[in-house]
Design a protein that fits this description.
By secondary structure, this protein is α/β, with parallel strands linked by helices. The protein is 37% helix and 23% strand. The chain has 15 helices and 24 strands. The strands form seven sheets. The chain has a seven-stranded mixed sheet with strand order 14-17-18-13-12-20-21, with helices on both faces. Strands 9-8-7-10-11-23 form a six-stranded mixed sheet, with helices on both faces. Strands 5-6-24 form a three-stranded antiparallel sheet. Helix 1 crosses helix 7, helix 2 packs antiparallel against helix 4 and helix 4 packs parallel to helix 5. The structure holds glyceraldehyde-3-phosphate. Glyceraldehyde-3-phosphate (G3H) binds next to loops.
Length: 486
């Protein structure tokens, strides 16, 4: 694929390209697979994309922000109908590009389609609500929501379809125009959609560019013509990119960032349930989810039992290629990830932890088997860093204030899972936990969905809120027409 989408044109690119390779090999012998190439665009094309988005927005007077609600919905429905015909192709890319299992790739596709339809319904409801009038102190108000402007949207590799669309769809529905740069992995899967974008939306409304993040995003931001920076990724890149904007007061941020979600297993927890939920929470998609359980606090009375049974279950997980039946662990898409996980393991071992599962840490070129580390303490890197991969640190605690203090001291505050059965203990604990994170999962692992619930975080975990309901609001501003009693 050597085309990119700017100003309604699928432009041919004859300049430099970069290879997209997969760490998946269909043979027994590991050999990275070349999947395709993408254009390595330059500052010039990035600025052309921005110019196209600015023209379509035209300071709120352009074609898209002035398009009627029903017409924007028609464009979105037309796009989604075409997208649905590409399911098999996109699912295949998800498996090969990022190593997501067939079941999870299909789920990601279907969840994205549902997300679009649910957002459309929510948008219709919002529009119906805006037809109502309010009256306070003799002033009538007709309140509605308006767009914010031009959005620069950057997506992550772990949910290249679903999280991309969790930003793009609400941004577009609300009348904003977008320049979108996909992640390095999970980029080819957009190629089957370029034409659908082109023929469903007016020119300049959606612009899709490829290349190095810094080369493209920096000049775009420096123009000061971006109104919203929307990204799902890490706070280091988010901060570096936003710094380029010359007038930050004019820049809105919609960020989904890192997390270090803990599980707290209380002494009276149903251990079977806790172990199964922690297993799924810590290992699904090899731990490459911002919502993954990244540290487990287990009460000292049950830690021995928990560790034994949890480790056995981890070792029983099937590793294989994404399309294999019952596969739970798959090759890691980032070539440097196994070495990074190994660093965390070595550091923890030097400082007194052990790998307590038999297969933990076994490596191949493109993989490292999930390592369960115990006992973990604050001196270890794995205690603090968002590993985003297959390693699970376990900390034993005596007093509930220990995990609570750690959570209060953490840079992150997305979610927590708590396992226990005594309501008299759980109720006051939950009251404390909700002041540290944004979602408390009772006897269940952490997750983003169902997508109607607010998805956000405290501290370095998020800026603004996503969800079918909230994202439409995050990408818009309340405006109103006021009139006085006559
Ligand atoms: O990587 C962060 C995702 O938002 C996680 O979503 O909980 O549905 O896997 P999920």
């Amino acid at each position: 694929q050597q085309t990119y989408l700017v100003d309604g044109e699928l432009r041919e690119w004859s300049g430099a390209t970069s290879e997209v390779t997969s760490t998946i090999s269909s043979t027994k012998v590991y050999k990275p697979t070349l999947l395709g190439t993408i254009p390595t665009l330059t500052e010039k094309e990035a600025l052309e994309a921005l110019e196209a988005a600015n023209k379509a927005y035209d300071r709120g007077q352009g074609l898209w922000p002035t398009t009627k609600v029903e017409d924007r919905i028609n464009c979105m429905e037309k796009f989604t109908a075409q997208m649905k015909t590409k399911r098999a192709e996109i699912v295949k890319f998800l498996m090969w590009e990022i190593g997501k299992s067939l079941t999870d790739s299909e789920k990601e596709f279907d969840r994205t389609v549902d997300y679009i339809y649910d957002s459309i319904e929510e948008y219709k409801q919002m529009d119906r609500d805006s037809a109502k009038f309010e009256k306070h102190s003799g002033v009538h108000a007709h309140i509605r929501r308006g767009p914010l402007g031009v959005v620069l949207c950057l997506a992550p590799y772990n949910y290249p379809l679903n999280e991309t669309f969790a930003l793009l769809i609400p941004a577009l529905l609300m009348g904003n125009t977008v320049v979108f740069k996909p992640a390095k992995q999970g980029v080819l899967l957009l190629s089957p959609l370029l034409e659908a974008f082109q023929n469903s939306f007016p020119a300049g409304v959606v612009n899709i560019i490829y290349g190095r993040g810094r080369t493209l995003a920096t000049p775009i931001m420096k123009t000061g013509k971006v109104d919203v920076l929307a990204l799902i990724g890490n706070s280091k890149s988010a901060n570096a990119i936003q710094e380029n904007h010359p007038n930050k007061n004019r820049l809105r941020l919609v960020f989904g960032l890192e997390a270090k979600n803990p599980a707290i297993v209380l002494p009276d927890a149903d251990l079977d349930l806790a172990i199964n939920e922690c297993l799924a929470g810590a290992t699904s998609f090899n731990g490459q989810r911002c919502t993954a359980l990244k540290i487990l606090y287990v009460h000292e009375n049950v830690v021995e039992e928990f560790n034994k049974r949890f480790s056995e279950k981890v070792d029983a997980l099937k590793f294989g290629n994404p399309w294999e039946e019952n596969v739970k662990l798959t090759p890691l898409p980032e070539p440097g990830k196994p070495a990074y996980i190994q660093e965390l393991i070595d550091d923890a071992k030097e400082k007194g932890a052990k790998i307590i599962n038999k297969k933990g840490g076994l490596t191949s070129e493109n993989y490292i088997f999930p390592a369960v580390l115990y006992p973990v303490n604050k001196k270890m890197r794995v205690f603090h860093e968002e590993q985003f991969g297959p390693v699970t640190p376990i900390v034993s605690f005596k007093n509930i204030n220990e995990p609570l203090d750690d959570m209060a001291a953490s840079n992150y505050g997305q979610q927590v899972s708590v396992f226990g059965s005594d309501v008299a203990i759980l109720a006051p604990l939950i009251d404390r936990l909700v002041n540290l994170v944004c979602r408390v999962n009772l006897n269940s692992s952490c997750q983003r969905g169902p997508d109607v619930y607010p998805f956000t975080g405290r501290k370095d975990s998020a800026v603004a809120t996503l969800s079918v309901h909230d994202a439409l609001r995050s990408f818009s501003i309340r405006t109103f027409v006021a009139s006085k009693d006559t």
